[in-house]
Amino acid sequence: MIAPRRTRLPSQAVLTLTLSTLPMALFAHGSMEDPMSRIYACYKENPENPSSPACVAAAAYSKPALYDWMSVRIGDAAGNHQGRIPDGRLCSAGDVTFGALDAARDDWPATSIAPDANGRLQLRFHATAPHATDYIRVYATEPDYDPNRPLSWSDLQAQPFCDLQEGEIGIEGNRYVLDCPFPTGLSGRHLLYTIWQRSDSPEAFYACSDVMIGDVIDPVDPVWQEVGVLVAESDLAAGSTITFRLFNAAGNDAETHSVVVEAAEALRDAWPKALAEEVNGSSGLLGIGQLNEGVVTPVLGANANRVYVNDAQSYSFVVDVTLPPVEPPPGDDAWRADLVYVGGDRVSYRGVEYEAKWWTRGDAPGASAVWQRLTPSDGPTEWNAGAVYTAGDQVIHQGATYEARWWTQGDEPGTHEVWTRLP
Questions:
Q1: Residue-level pLDDT at 10
Q2: Which of the given ranges, 1-5, 124-128, 159-163, has the highest pLDDT on average?
Q3: Fold of 21-213
Q4: How many other CB atoms are there within 10 angstroms of residue 374's CB atom?
Q5: Which of 281, 306, 333, 402 shows its CA 20 to 30 Å from the CA of 57?
């Protein structure tokens, strides 16, 4: 057996969540992200194991519907929204597939909102598929709205508080940004109803976002400007390092904060709060959490915390997650899917020695081009479409024996010139 050689023990892996601003075509398929629509909130909670009672009920009604969060739509609406959607069916757009969204209950996940210093509200729509836009209209419910009654058209105010056409809509990455006047005369639990009408098709999209409306910020308190939403996509391994980086308008680092999460803080509903507490405790510029009466308070929740700055300048941020290094037992050269290998590292897998050509993690030897087989073959083996073969490897396929002329994967013997049929 060839002696194992490891030029470097497994290194740390870094995952990055980034918010950027890029010119691009307008998008339409999707749903409201800030404030989160009912279906997008339940999708973010994980349709297989949601945490809030309303989303548990929605998943019980239809898990596949939650995975299809971007498709609450009517293909031929052509602006006739009220004529096509009956009372009590607004949140599902009259589609029984999404019928769980119409449940009248007061425990749907709600986003806390409040006007900024200029009496405005920024909304964000997470988009997926490109389409031209005729308009986006957002309605607020009437002051006497009761979430325990099925939502009807008469529950919405007659005029949208936000009514924007294509040229008035901003773009940040694959998010539409809507700069709207804040709906006035409302407080407590309400609902925002979004209608997205395409201009190149009669198709329209719909979203119900539950909100908790706060008071206007007291001028003596910090004037917080929202930068974005801190979203946790997954649980982390205990010992992971989370680094929050804030950038100014020129793209330069304004602040950097890091925290190492323990096991109790590693779940996706918990680590954003741990990060927010670290940031809020050491920064005079940043606040991460929920804003209420001028105070930003960190809370539990995978997407419940928002990023604020008490500065009128433009900022963006990224969150880097550095996973803890995993060390193999001394003298153990067996390949492991959770380890990182770099060029020159050697492993043993299923009795065969391999050498890595470049950085890899999770790519099984014999099934990826990153691994070079070192142990000579004992003879032809049955051809496997997922396996990697190099020059000289022999296989048996449909009763015939073939030899590889060069590197190959997925090329069926007898149908590709990489294989030479042997007598």
A1: 36
A2: 159-163
A3: Coagulation Factor XIII; Chain A, domain 1 (2.70.50)
A4: 15
A5: 306
pLDDT digits (tens, 9 = 90+) for 349-369: 877 888 888 888 888 887 777
DSSP 340-355: EE-TT-EEEETTEEEE
Question: What are the percentages of helix, strand and coil residues in the chain, rounded to 5?
Answer: 15, 35, 50
How far is 180 from 122, CA to CA, in rounded Å? 6
Per residue, the 3-state secondary structure of 391-407, as one string, reads CCCEEEECCEEEEECCC
Bridge partners, residue 420, by sequence: 403
Q: Residue 383 to residues 8, 70, 354: CA-CA distances in angstroms?
A: 33, 41, 19
Q: How distant, in Å, are the alpha carbons of 51, 133, 232, 239, 274 from that of 264?
A: 17, 45, 15, 11, 10
Rounded to whole angstroms, how far apart are CA atoms 278 and 259? 7
> 277: part of which helix (H) or strand (E)?
helix 271-282
Are residues 51 and 45 in contact, defined by beta-carbon separation less than 8 angstroms? yes
Looking at domain 222-322, which of 3.40.50.880, 3.40.190.150, 3.90.320.10, 3.30.70.2150 is its CATH number?
3.30.70.2150
CA dihedral over 120, 273, 32, 172, signed as positive or negative: positive
In angstroms, rounded to a whole number, what is the distance separating the alpha carbons of residues 226 and 220?
Answer: 18
**In sequence order, which residues have a C-beta less than 8 Å from that of residue 241 and are 6 or more positions away?**
258, 259, 260, 261, 321, 322, 324
What would the DSSP string read from start to end of 132-151? -EEEEEEEEB-TT--TTS--
Q: Is pLDDT of 404 > 90?
A: no
For the CA atoms of 95, 101, 104, 109, the dihedral, rounded to the nearest 10 degrees, stands at -170
Query: What whole-number distance in Å separates Cα of residue 133 and Cα of residue 201?
Result: 9
CATH architecture type of domain 340-421: Ribbon (2.10)
CA 97, CA 115: separation in Å to the nearest integer?
35
- Residue 64, classified by CB atoms within 10 Å of its CB into exposed (0-12), middle (13-18) or buried (19+), is exposed
